[in-house]
Automatic annotation (TrEMBL), chains A, B:
This is PLP-dependent aminotransferase family protein. Residues 32-377 form the Aminotransferase class I/classII large domain. Belongs to the class-I pyridoxal-phosphate-dependent aminotransferase family. Pfam families: Aminotran_1_2. The keyword Membrane does not apply. Keywords: Aminotransferase, Pyridoxal phosphate, Transferase. GO terms for molecular function: pyridoxal phosphate binding; transaminase activity.
Length: 410, 410
């Protein structure tokens, strides 16, 4: 399948009779829509002439203070001067890449990792190198070995991109012990860390880990977002960066968009200052925990032997490894015709990898839909397994180009 | 003055006692704020779960149809498939530059031209070449001569960036005759035109000119915006591009921000479908005409001999040429201490040019403020002229780096 075929397939997959375990869309219907309707009107009524005007490239000063408060929940101490408001954390990713990456520079990231990050790094012609992860997140030895090899080769490595909490797509979280080691290795090699943390506050069990930024303010650019804890529809994300980097990012933002929407920034600011947003996140966490547990329950009960999956303590995604000889990408059209969709693992690697994997998301469908979706998926996997037993591997030859089914899978 | 000094100066210039003729901010207070307050609430109430969700990188399909209707007012026939919604037309500029420009490629633009366009071209390491303009817009012979020379030198010229209507900062409009010649020259050289038209509908007298895009759909990327006709606070602009280019721009947009704010797109869509927006633009034009006429009146009555200015039929800006030996950049601190601000001409060139020029804007201050601002400015110019007569030229040696007082002057 080439990219256009995947897109066509996803068009079919968005039909109502298909249970989609593919998209990473938050369940915004659970928001207090009446209150949000009031907030947007209040911003126009009370702050209209400012809200509807141009703003600064760095972002609204009040919101940047509030963002510092949000980050303090996870143990980050930051100055609002070092925050820049962006069009989702995607724009922050883009600005960081454009500031740091020259064609051919190496960017390190986890294997697998967020598909649109790969696309952005590739857009700036980075040489993307993957570092293996396991159930405790990225493997420090693998990181160190890669850095040692690249250094010996005289390569320029610009940064290490990581999603330490409830990784997309892996679902895994970097352990405390490994956080220390990763920071130690990166500091030793003088390597900047790009910490992407959209899901950190969406934890359904266990104790929160300290962000890498909290322990290495000078070595880490931290990316945050209101897309998962409030709404992606306002496109408010941010970067927190060491001052020298922040100044460069502000110039890049000015070139990229002049300024972000003042209105949207004030809406998010007013939501934070007038709505019990911490309680709202707790409510979201109840809802998402129930959905995650529905997925765990169905996987545990129904998946055939030889299939394994991660057990995320938060976030939106479970990463499934299929029995040997099965190919999630080749299997997708058959799954869609059985009215269930997922994202094949191949989208989450820069090279041709990940055929035995798929990402299942539990954020958007209801628990009932999740159970039904997994039931259908298990049917497909079982029938693929018998095919394999009869005819051998179901994999397809590698295709060229990105096969990521974006834009549907943030 | 270096960039930081200019910024500091503009911080002073934003004090209430200073009449600012510097910024290009539309007068959003003239908007029907009550109705806009209702619209934003209606979008949440009636379309909340969609409006607050991720959207497509290309932009909302309904809004793209409406954008085609807006463009049809100026004679453009377009397919919504070829429209991409962007974060202001600034993002469109940025995406086009990133898709087309490799370091060292030549980009042609008018002399002077929009400061943030220069910054964007420079950010992608374009070799920026200016083409002279006069009261009828860009001079075709100058364009042709430059193209012939660059072609002879074997240089790669990527596009010609032009603001044909009420140019920023020149205020001039490209005549019909010259539009034909510019298109003919660009087509002969196979050169893409990047037509930036934020002010086209803000015409206060005279007959509208046909956009370049209307007569050369395959050779022109057209940029539009709701920032001046509605509000810059929603950051909704667009590009209309030939299909092959549009597909590349959509991929670049996806990398740059995943998707624009669905909410903002729906707000603008609902405004267009429920508010008499054509009448609203007529009201704006009445208001801005009065402001422009206040500026013309004050300039005509007060400016000393040897000072000249353009006479824009629309838009926001008048371009002033000072008597020989005066330097608008050197004069700015003295003007600010006399409680009037403007943008020195030097900001609108890639090189060290424009010292004798300044941009005055009449969009944001009231007619009374404009008259008072011009009165103060004339006092400064007269005292500079006596200084010049006593001590010779007031100019300062060239400084390096961009001295553009952004982000205040869209």
């Amino acid at each position: 399948m080439v990219a256009s075929e995947v897109r066509a397939l996803f068009a079919v997959a968005s039909r109502p009779e298909v249970v989609s375990l593919a998209g990473g869309m938050p369940n915004v219907s659970a928001l207090p829509l009446d209150r949000i309707g009031e907030i947007v009107q209040e911003v126009v009524a009370e702050q209209g002439p400012t809200a509807l005007q141009y703003g600064s490239a760095q972002g609204d000063a009040v919101l940047r203070e509030q963002i510092c408060e949000v980050m303090s929940l996870e143990g980050i101490e930051a100055d609002a001067d070092d925050v820049i408001v962006t069009v989702g954390s995607q724009q922050a990713l883009d600005l960081v890449t454009r500031v740091f990456v020259d064609p051919g520079d190496v960017v390190l990231c986890e294997a697998p990792t967020y598909v649109t990050a790969i696309n952005t790094f590739a857009a700036f012609q980075a040489d993307i190198r993957h570092i293996a992860i396991d159930d405790d997140g990225v493997i420090p030895e693998a990181l160190e070995e890669t850095l040692a090899r690249l250094t010996a080769e005289g390569r320029t490595v610009k940064f290490f991109y990581t999603i330490p909490n409830f990784q997309n797509p892996g679902g895994v979280t970097l352990s405390s012990e490994r956080r220390r080691r990763v920071l130690e290795i990166c500091q030793r090699y003088g390597l900047l860390v790009l910490e992407d943390n959209p899901y950190g506050l969406l934890r359904y069990e266990g104790d929160p880990e300290r962000p890498l930024r909290a322990d290495a303010p000078d070595n880490v650019i931290y990316l945050g977002s209101f897309s998962k804890t409030l709404s992606p529809g306002f496109r408010i994300g941010w970067a927190l960066a060491p001052s020298a980097v922040r100044a460069k990012l502000v110039l890049a933002a000015e070139s990229a968009m002049l300024s972000h929407s003042t209105f949207n920034q004030m809406v998010v600011g007013r939501y934070l200052s007038t709505h019990p947003w911490r309680e709202q996140i707790k409510d979201f966490n109840e809802m998402y925990r129930e959905r995650r547990d529905a997925m765990f329950g169905a996987l545990d009960a129904l998946m055939p032997a030889g299939t394994t999956w991660t057990r995320p303590e938060g976030g939106f995604f479970v990463w499934v490894t299929l029995p040997e000889g099965l190919d999630a990408k080749a299997m997708l059209p058959r799954a869609v015709s059985e009215r269930v969709a997922y994202v094949p693992g191949t989208g989450f690697y820069a090279g041709d990898e990940g055929h035995r994997h798929m990402r299942l998301s539990f954020c958007y469908p209801t628990p009932e839909q999740i159970r039904e979706g997994v039931r259908r998926l298990v049917g497909v996997i079982k029938s693929e397994t018998s095919l394999r037993d009869t005819f051998g591997s179901t994999s397809v030859p590698p295709t060229s180009g990105s096969d990521a089914p974006t834009p549907d899978i943030p």
